[in-house]
Amino acid sequence: MREKIGKYQKSLRLSTKLMEIYPSIEADSHEEFLLQLLEQLDNDRKNKKRIRNLNNAGFSVIKTLNNYDFSQINLPDKMQLHELETLRFITNKENLILYGAVGTGKTHLAVALGVKAINEGKRAVFYRVHDLVNELESESSKKAKALKKIAKSDLLILDEWGYLPLHQEGARLLFDIVSSCYETKSIIITTNIEFGRWKGFLFDEKLTAAIVDRLVHHSHMIMFTGQSYRMINSLIK
Ligand SMILES: Nc1ncnc2c1ncn2[C@@H]1O[C@H](COP(=O)(O)OP(=O)(O)O)[C@@H](O)[C@H]1O
Ligand SMILES: [Mg+2]
Prior knowledge:
The chain has twelve helices and six strands.
């Protein structure tokens, strides 16, 4: 019997967990048994998907909101902590702009929000702006892969926005990405460059205006006012 069940598990492409799940179910009726079985298979599938998404998101380290210190961070009135944590900005396809000096926790917060989104069944992708532009400029299969990954995501995190100057083609590729996300998904950018100085790394004035326009419309600005965590930690040592 077990062997036959195993055979159907494979041919129906059900989780191998089935073989663990079904003997442990205690139920008083057929319906109850079936319901519990389906629920547990569904959970198993969602969990695998979550882990796959987490591995494919491009985070170099995993960070969470646990013990994250918000005391030096200015959240906008409409986006207080509990609101931020609901991730409603993703459902609403709004953007977050995390602005502040180096070492103040921008990347940490962006990653933590991305991880939370994935844990809740959404898709998030993380790129340092320069790595993304490099991928978009590389061979067409790599470019297509990146575009597909972004297209399928609910949240695109662009880290280190403006840290290095782009050339014209790079800026144009970035513009295409931002445009394609406009009102279809959320973007989080982390930057230490104020809007007025974006032209300095995007070069083209019109392009800069167009990017600012698309990013800033439906966006929330989060200001990081603290001192560098790296600096504080190294001073303590
Ligand atoms: N508010 C914070 N709460 C907890 N850890 C923080 C906070 N801000 C920064 N850190 C830690 O300090 C280091 C630098 O933060 P990071 O997010 O890389 O800064 P940024 O991206 O602004 O340069 C990371 O290891 C991060 O986990
Ligand atoms: Mg950073």
